[in-house]
Design brief:
The complex is a heterodimer of chains A (about 400) and B (about 325).
Chain A (H helix, E strand, L loop, with lengths): L4 E10 L2 E11 L4 E5 L6 H9 L6 E6 L2 E2 L10 E4 L11 H11 L4 H14 L15 H13 L5 E5 L7 H18 L2 E6 L2 H7 L2 E6 L2 E6 L1 H6 L4 H6 L4 E12 L2 E6 L4 E5 L9 E6 L5 E3 L10 E13 L3 E8 L2 E8 L15 E7 L3 E4 L18 H4 L4
Parallel strand pairs in A: 3-8, 3-9, 6-7, 7-8
Antiparallel strand pairs in A: 1-2, 1-4, 4-5, 9-10, 11-12, 11-14, 12-13, 14-20, 15-19, 16-17, 16-19, 17-18
Chain B lengths: L2 H30 L2 E3 L5 E4 L2 H5 L4 H33 L2 H12 L6 H11 L5 H19 L2 H9 L19 H26 L3 H8 L4 H12 L1 H17 L2 H6 L7 H11 L3 H45 L5
Antiparallel strand pairs in B: 1-2
Helix pairs in contact in B: 3-8, 3-11, 6-7, 8-11, 9-10, 13-14
Chain lengths: ~400, ~325
């Protein structure tokens, strides 16, 4: 069955650059769907094509079974919350929200009651008579959402709606957006470069890179089972190990020999054979680091000797950088037990590094990752907290 | 120097200029109106005789006509300047400079020469006149040859005249239309420039927002672009209306006897009749007839703004009380 909103091979070029390259995916009714990627990845272009501001060079966009590719923006039942809010400066908050209904020629008392409902939804009742230059960024944001929602769009498009807000406000608006989505039950298409926002709000995420949707999946799946090295490194932090399969001791496990590192065991869900090249991703929090060797030899546990090179202590957790052979490995260790009872780890110490074979994940590609596109790596403490950078 | 003194020091030269060449002459003109005129063409004794003379039955009609024509010229200029300003602001910056330059280009030619050129263009033997007359003839031919019902409908709508057009009474030159046309031509750059300047600062993403909310192109233009550049429109209106009210060269050269405006009357009284106080009184009348509506409009806007605020306050109060409608 066709999805509520469908992109079918949508392609857009600007001159020689391909902004969006054959994007094909569906969004379900009522879903909170995010387009996530670094700036210039084509996510905003995709959104603008759905809103009707850009025409795709190829492909179709269908909404509820109808092809809307060639409709002008004012004939589509989608509304946008713009990044800079784009509130009309000459109209009051009330009239800004009423704009769409007035254009549609609705009767006056209906407009009043609908706008008042929206004002209550976004908690702006007492600002109805203010003008956009008299309210704060967060309030503008809410008016922009109300102005779009009042038209009861089939899909609400949000273009980096929180980018202009400070951290505290952003976290509050995240919560409110989630509540609003639950309350109105409209399909949300959310564009952001912030993995934290996307992870915490979305039902599903499409991770975009250079015009291509690299992976479309639930947030946990995108994090734990990234399809490509780009996805693995853009969402959270990770350690890459490119190696060659040297043996397959069990049906679902294989040994990788990694140049300048060691031989490690990993889960072979991709059914690679001896001699295949593999790019393994291990998230920093999957490692255990200890002064003593890990107690009780658990099956399929990789245990290595490592030398501590860097330590950043952050209270509830510590980031370590250790060297194993010629490689540097980033580790995130949460302090689950009372830290002062443990043997302290110091710079230059020889320590034990361990992780279970199931906790590494094989990527489909082995392409090198363009570091400039990635979020900054140090300090690393933002990764697991899902905070914005 | 305090900030206040600094401000005064900076504005002093322009204030002095305005005082010397605007305020004092205006007061002198006003003072002249309370004098009689002397037979040698000078200003006579203090007297109210000039104001008694000025109650000429012709003047109100001429003042009204001047204002009406200036208003028409202003409306045409704004209507033409809005899309122009919009289009120029949307252009790439290098084209903007070219087009803005092209708009100012006519100023390199003397104003009187340009108006004289229009006299040639609109001459009874010129092609504009020929085209216009052909149109009139076609209109008459239509009413004569169309089936009765259609013809009667056209006559009823005032589209088709029953009589054939008369060349002697159908000239464009020496008509009010010629004055409006050439005034619009002359004053259009003064309307485009402030509107373009305002449009350049306008945030065009608001147009996208309007389109996104269901407005068509025209609706987005009228209800978002136009209010967004209203300051520019106000300047444009003033820049066009005030010179239009004071114009006398254009009606003199192109209006013939059919379009005598207040400027021409002032010219006649001052230069031909050598009655300076009378001309001064007319000028005062004209200035008053322009300023009074402008002040009234400003007052009306303030009143409207106050009233609007009261309406939203009432609405907000109802909302806060949790009332549903």
């Amino acid at each position: 069955m066709a999805d509520f909103l469908e992109f079918q091979g949508v392609t857009k070029r600007f001159g020689k650059t391909i902004a969006v390259n054959h994007a094909s995916f569906g969004v379900k009714k009522g879903e909170f769907f995010s387009l996530l990627g670094p700036s210039g990845c084509g996510k905003t272009t995709l959104l603008r094509m759905l809103a009707g501001f850009e025409r795709p060079d190829e492909g179709r966009i269908c909404l509820d079974g109808k092809d809307i590719t060639d409709l002008p923006p004012n004939k589509r039942s989608v509304n946008t919350v713009f990044q800079n809010y784009a509130l009309f400066p000459h109209l009051s908050v009330f009239d800004n929200i009423a704009f769409g209904l007035k254009v549609a020629g609705r009767p006056k008392d209906e407009i009043e009651s609908e706008v008042e409902k929206m004002l209550r939804l976004v908690q702006m009742e007492d600002r109805a008579d203010h003008f956009p230059n008299q309210i704060s960024g967060g309030q503008k944001q809410r008016v922009a959402i109300a102005r779009a929602l009042v038209n009861r769009p089939r899909v609400l498009l949000l273009d980096e709606p929180l980018a202009a807000l400070d951290l505290k406000l952003r976290q509050r608006m995240l919560l409110e957006l989630d509540l609003i989505h639950d309350e109105v039950g409209i399909t949300f298409l959310y564009v952001t470069h912030d993995q934290g926002e996307a992870m915490s709000l979305s039902d599903r995420i499409a991770v975009m890179h250079a015009g291509v949707c690299e992976q479309i999946a639930r947030p946990a799946e995108v994090y734990e089972a990234p399809k490509t090295s780009f996805v693995a490194s853009f969402i959270g932090d990770t350690n890459f190990f490119d190696g060659v399969v040297s043996a397959c001791p069990e049906p679902n496990y294989c040994r990788l020999s990694i140049g300048g590192f060691a031989e490690v065991l990993c889960y072979n869900d991709k059914q690679k054979a001896v001699g295949d090249r593999v790019n393994l991703s291990v998230r920093p929090e999957k490692f255990r680091i200890s002064v003593d060797p890990p107690a009780g030899a658990a099956p399929r546990l990789n245990v290595l000797r490592a030398k501590v090179e860097d330590i950043i202590y952050s209270g509830n957790h510590t980031n370590y950088w250790v060297s194993v052979g010629e490689r540097r490995v980033a580790i995130y260790q949460q302090h689950l037990a009372y830290l002062l009872d443990e043997k302290p780890i110091r710079w230059g110490d020889e320590v034990w590094l361990s992780w279970h074979a199931d906790n590494g994940y094989m990527l489909d590609d082995s392409a090198p990752v363009d570091e400039s596109l990635l979020p900054p790596k140090i300090p690393q403490n933002a990764a697991a907290a899902g905070e914005a950078k | 120097m305090t900030k206040r003194q600094h401000e005064i020091a900076i504005t002093a030269p322009s204030l002095l200029w305005l005082a010397l060449f605007f305020a004092i002459p205006a007061l002198v003109v006003l003072a002249f109106t309370f004098h009689g005129h002397s037979p040698d063409g000078g200003v006579g004794e203090w007297s109210l005789s000039t104001w008694r003379e000025i109650v000429d039955p012709d003047y109100p009609a001429i003042v009204w006509k001047t204002i009406r024509i200036s208003f028409e010229v202003t409306v045409w200029c704004i209507l033409l300047a809005l899309p122009c300003g919009y289009a120029i602001a949307k252009m790439r910056s290098k084209w903007r400079a070219v087009v803005a330059g092209a708009i100012m280009l006519p100023f390199w030619t003397n104003f009187v020469v340009r108006v004289f050129a229009w006299k040639t263009i609109l001459h009874p033997d010129g092609w504009v006149q020929h085209c216009y007359f052909s149109l009139l003839e076609a209109r008459h031919w239509l009413s004569a040859h169309l089936p009765g019902l259609v013809a009667r409908a056209l006559d009823g709508a005032g589209i088709a005249p029953a009589e054939p057009p008369d060349p002697a009474f159908s000239t464009i030159l020496d008509s009010e239309a010629a004055v409006v046309l050439v005034s619009v031509y002359t004053l259009l750059p003064f309307a485009i420039m402030p509107i373009y300047t305002a449009a350049e600062k306008f945030d065009f993403s608001l147009m996208e927002a309007a389109r996104d909310l269901g407005a068509g192109n025209l609706r987005a233009f009228t209800s978002v672009f136009v209010p967004g550049i209203r300051q520019g429109i106000v300047s444009a209106v003033l820049m066009v209306f005030i010179p239009a009210v004071g114009s006398y060269v254009i009606p003199q050269m192109l209006g013939g006897t059919n379009c005598v405006l207040i400027g021409n009357k002032i010219f006649m009284r001052a230069i031909q009749n050598r009655n300076i106080p009378h001309a001064a009184a007319l000028a005062t009348l004209m200035a008053a007839s322009v300023f009074v509506p402008i002040i009234a409009a400003a007052w009306w806007r303030r009143y409207q703004a106050k009233r609007g605020r009261r309406i939203v306050e009432v609405r907000a109060a109802r909302l806060m009380a949790g009332g549903t409608k």
